[in-house]
Amino acid sequence: MLTKKQKRINWVLVIFLLVLSIFFLFPVIWMLANSFKPDAAITADMNSVAAFIPPMPQGNFFENYVTIIKDTSFLRYMGNTLFYAAVMIVLGIVVNGLAGYALAKIPFPFSDKWLLIILMLQIVPTETVITIHFLIIAKAGLLNTVLGYVLPMIVNPFNIYLFRQVFVSLPDDVYEAAQLDFCGPVKYFFTMVLPMSKTVVATVGVFTFLNVWNDYLWPALVFTSGDLLTAQIGLNAITSNENTTMGQTLAVITMITIPVIIIYSLFSKQIVEGVTSTGSKEG
Amino acid sequence: MSFIEFRNICKKYPGAEKNTVDGFNLEIQEKEFIAFVGPSGCGKSTTLRMVAGFEEITGGDLYIDGKRVNEMAPKDRGIAMVFQNYALYPHMTVEKNIAYGLKNMKVPAAEIKKKVDWAVKILGLEEYRLRKPKNLSGGQRQRVALGRAIVKNQKVFLMDEPLSNLDAKLRVSMRTEISKLHRELGATTIYVTHDQVEAMTMADRIVIMKDGIVQQVGAPLELYNHPANKFVAGFIGSPQMNFFDVTVKGNTVSFADGNQLILEKGALAKLNGRGGEMILGIRGEDLKLDAQNMELYGANSQRAVITNTEVMGNENNLYFTFGGSQAVARVSKYEISQIGDEIEFVFMPSKMQFFDKKTGENYIKNDAEE
Q1: Between A240 and A92, whose confidence is greater?
Q2: Which of A176, A178, A182 minimises the CB distance to B105?
Q3: Architecture of domain B239-356
Q4: Chain A: closest CA distance from residue B103 (Å)
Q5: Do A183 and B104 touch (CB under 8 A)?
Q6: B4-230 carries CATH number 3.40.50.300
Q7: Range(s) within chain B of domains with CATH label 3.40.50.300
Q8: Domains of chain A, each with CATH number or no CATH
Q9: Does the pLDDT at position A240 exceed 60?
Q10: ipTM value of the model?
Q11: Which of B75, B81, B91 is nearest residue A182 as measured by Cβ atoms?
Q12: Is the peptide bond before B239 cis (omega within 30 degrees of 0)?
């Protein structure tokens, strides 16, 4: 039961956070409102509150969006990115999950040192590693292929660590019980370990999606053909084109932001739980 | 021929100085209910886990149904196990938990359904079959774990302290249920517990272990009446057996506080001429206060002042200091005494046990007299 004083403090905190969130929401609201306006209206509203108010829905309300969808391949780029993200999520969960499981549950020499080495990899900036990745992929003749894009991105030290931290607290007797129920180790991983660790699976899935969705450098290096480009590269190409209006730019930015907002709002609970989870399970 | 045979089984963990389980020999008959009992760290669970195949056997041979199983995978040993922490699959419903093993055994769906129906019925889980483990009480979870074990028709059941997480009342009812299940299914059962009451009430035979070594194997009453050593005598029975440091000279037993009693011929014969310092052990219920026994053995009566009482309802425990030790007498509920009362009591001559002071070995061997 909260005391009166605690309740008062809670209210003050809520109001403070609401005010704070407005600061962060300003650019998003501005972007959304102006993505429906022609450039002339954007410029006219620039110095007034109207800059944050979308126009009344009329015949050409979605004109900026329609132009982007009709005149550019941005939808295709978004589709590509969704596909890469899906592949990367599945492979990332399997590969990083198996590595995390091995580090958590399978005794092998120097397993704790391995964990340390894997964690140290996290310190190395992506930009340093990416040159080597590029050289390997180029040598393997995988430039401008989906495989070349996906392969170096699957293993993620942070995800391995996340999986390991959760798996280490899974009770061993469940594995023993499963063995007596004729469940082999691979089946156990997929039918027991992953379902028992839904939170971390969701967290890794969301992180992987966001990584793929927001990644610019690696796809820019690997992909040269327009067919395979990702949304971020498409965004850059569209916004740097001098024929693109400001309204269209804002529309394309809105389009690229929407999936991220959806994912965050759907999985925010799991992300927090997954990162903070001590992994304690109940029978 | 025995169904499970332990031949000099040893377990030594890497880096450990001595064996956790040392020279374990035992033959278990088919359909027998065996309990492994002992204090924490005595090696009982390790032994059970070696039978299951979860611990490597570092010495000796283990046979199940005539086959050496030392290197055999757990699933191939024909065993089912109930774990202390239930080890249910948390993301599966009760019926899926029970059916999981059968599914993996590729049992036809219709038969799985029949078996699951049977299991949930006899375990009283019908209304919970679609619940997940987190929505069940401890007792219900343990019944699901039992259900998972019984549907697979395995010949050996291993139970690792299955009732230790339950409250006292539930433990008593589950004890009855497990005994009933054992009678109905007839599977050879090894039951590990640290609770001697569970072992006494459920098992056909009890194996008492201490520091990885078997102290005694026998039927519950055999262990109770003829403990092989002081450890077994003290472990089995509640309240614990009374122990007194005594010196035996001829037919006279002298206690540390100067009290004496005269041994009758029968007890003397059992001692077989032994004398000197030893430990006298006698159970609380064999210290008698009633008129009949006082009349019979009154010549040897002793006196003490009660320091504490426990009124159990069906009986009373009277605590007092005697012979330099704390002692307890279990008397009927009608023999009421208060703290500070002086009581007169006798030792039942035939029930006295004499233990070696150093080794703890019982000098009184099991013979036909009892």
Answers
A1: A92
A2: A182
A3: Beta Barrel (2.40)
A4: 9
A5: yes
A6: yes
A7: 4-230
A8: 4-67 (no CATH), 72-276 (1.10.3720.10)
A9: yes
A10: 0.85
A11: B75
A12: yes
